[in-house]
């Protein structure tokens, strides 16, 4: 039977998100900003984040997905939803729920840079280091996670559990 071990409760998540919102709000006080959420996992994080920010931001989403669960290279990643707004010469922050191998993010950085933004930074609620395959600099991190499979607060296991308001570590 699958067990759920509590990982972060509502208050803990709220504090991590508020801290990132404060840092972004002060770093971009005098600059236009576009937040690009990575579907589907970031939809709850992004919606909480923008409501705690004190500066305006344009919002768009991109979708990316691996071809198979055993995807070993970024060539196995495909775009499931393209960018819709014009980001040329704009300041961008990519919003991810969790970075694991880093392959999805590496693919999306290439994709987004092809539209020639003036600046590109990365924000991830969770930075899971154990299986990282690509060297990435994540500018805004909520929490570093050593390992484990997390669900809730937008994160799924086989499309389930995204709706859980708190984060859990799945024990298989
Ligand atoms: P990466 O390409 O290996 O860095 O991971 C890409 C995506 O896999 C993330 O954006 C998540 O959507 C998903 N993912 C990675 N680790 C977890 C996890 O622990 N729980 C739920 N989804 C995960
Ligand atoms: Mg994701």
Descriptive notes:
- It is a single chain.
- This protein has 172 residues and is α/β, with parallel strands linked by helices.
- 23% of the residues lie in helices and 34% in strands.
- It is built from three helices and nine strands, in the order βαβαβββαββββ.
- The protein has helices at 10-27, 43-52, 103-113; strands spanning 3-8, 34-39, 58-66, 77-81, 91-99, 119-128, 140-145, 149-151, 167-171.
- The strands form two sheets. Strands 4-3-2-5-6-7 form a six-stranded mixed β-sheet, with helices on both faces. Strands 1-9-8 form a three-stranded antiparallel β-sheet.
- α1 (10-27) crosses α2.
- The chain is globular and about 50 Å long.
- The relative contact order is 0.21.
- The mean pLDDT is 94.
- The structure holds inosinic acid and magnesium ion (MG).
- Inosinic acid binds next to β5, α3 and β8.
């Amino acid at each position: 039977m699958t067990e759920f071990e509590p990982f972060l409760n509502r208050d803990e998540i709220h504090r991590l998100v508020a801290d990132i919102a404060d840092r972004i709000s002060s770093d971009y006080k005098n600059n236009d900003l576009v937040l690009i959420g990575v579907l589907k996992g970031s939809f709850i994080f992004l919606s909480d984040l923008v409501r705690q920010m004190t500066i305006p931001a344009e919002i768009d989403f991109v979708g990316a997905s691996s071809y198979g669960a055993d995807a070993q290279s970024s060539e196995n990643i495909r775009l499931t939803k393209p960018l819709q707004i014009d980001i040329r010469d704009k300041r961008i922050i990519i919003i991810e729920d969790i970075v694991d191998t880093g392959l999805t993010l590496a693919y999306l950085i290439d994709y987004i840079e092809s539209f020639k933004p003036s600046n590109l930074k990365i924000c991830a609620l969770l930075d899971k280091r154990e299986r990282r395959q690509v060297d990435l600099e994540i500018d805004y991190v909520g929490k570093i996670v050593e390992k484990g499979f997390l669900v809730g607060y937008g994160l799924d296991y086989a499309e389930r559990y995204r709706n859980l308001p708190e984060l859990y570590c799945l024990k298989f």
